[in-house]
Amino acid sequence: MKVQWYPGHMAKATRLMKEQLKTVDIVIEVCDARAPLASRNDVLSSALGGKKRIVAYNKSTLADKQISENWMAHLTAGGELCVFTDAMAREGIKQLRELLIDEAAGKMRYNRAVRAMVTGIPNVGKSMLINSLTFSSGVKTGNRPGLTRGNQWLRIDEKLHLLDTPGVLAPKIESDYDAFCLAAIGCVKDTIFDKYEACIEIVDFMRRYYPALLLSRYKLEAIDDDSVVVLEDIARRRGFFMRGGEVDLNRLADTLYDEFKNGKIGRMSLQCPEEK
Fold first, then answer.
1. For residues 248 and 15, what is the distance between their CA atoms, to the nearest angstrom?
2. Cβ-proximal residues to 145 (8 Å cutoff; 6+ apart), any chain
3. pLDDT at residue number 141
4. Predicted local distance difference test score (pLDDT) of residue 139
5. What's the pLDDT score for residue 275?
6. What pLDDT is recorded for position 6?
7. Can you give the pLDDT at residue 109?
8. Residue 186 backbone phi and psi in degrees, to 5
9. Quick one: which of 175, 153, 182, 185 has its CA closest to 262?
């Protein structure tokens, strides 16, 4: 799958983040636990330079639990400071806050609040994560990419201040599989790719790695080797028909895509550490 999405505000946001790095003690880089590699912006990571960071792999309750445990072992063995979190379920939030303050406060010369910049690509749950850390709902959130447009400081309490920043993708997505991952988990706008083609790839993926979830969710008796046939079967079982009795694959694509993106089919991970 080919996906490219880099509106002008993303380039501006990257420049602004570079300028504001000197005002923060540490960076929280938020990624999606289902695709730990694809959901990292290497250009943004490079722009952060040597600034200390903690990576929060968010939406962890949507990811395959065993694979996330494998990722955690792999990443920590490589020296990365990371936490698997789920802002909506409030999992890992306390651990993230404690790690954040411990790592930053020990290097500060004066007794003041830790200042942390929150970065990441669109729709990985940055604003929801901030709301979880603040125990409030003061930051706009939504399950679509590109909602936060400007940097804003948030005073959490006497120990922690956060700088919320817009979601920024890399200028170019080199890997077709990374592009598929970003599309499948909702990190790029669904108006810039063919949703039906994405659903063919989603079914290809589930046929290979999560056939039991595919069978269970859509009450299939068997899974055909052709993903188009599988989509047609699901459309018939859901009663998605157009006039004349032809299956409505566009309606099916909208439904299946949303169910996959939102984790309604079941817990799945799109990347494993051994595939790094």
1. 45
2. 121, 122, 123, 167, 186, 187, 188, 189
3. 40
4. 46
5. 56
6. 61
7. 66
8. 85, 25
9. 185
* Residue range(s) of every CATH 1.10.1580.10 domain in the chain: 194-275
Bridge-based pairing of strands 53-58 and 152-155 is unpaired
**pLDDT confidence of residue 12:** 82
- Fold topology of 194-275: Conserved Hypothetical Protein Ylqf; Chain: A; domain 2 (1.10.1580)
* Alpha-carbon separation of residue 241 from 68, 100, 202 (angstroms): 39, 52, 21
pLDDT at position 79: 94
Find out whether 161 and 118 touch, Cβ atoms under 8 Å. no
Residues of the chain with pLDDT under 50: 137, 139-149, 276
How confident is the model at residue 148, as a pLDDT?
Answer: 46
Considering only CA atoms, which of 171, 181, 176 is closest in space to residue 272? Answer: 181
Q: What is the dotted CATH code of the domain comprising 8-164?
A: 3.40.50.300
Residues of the chain with CATH 3.40.50.300: 8-164
Q: In the prediction, which pLDDT does 241 show? A: 96
Which residue, chain included where needed, has tokens 């954040």?
100
- Rounded Cα distance between 209 and 222, Å, is 15
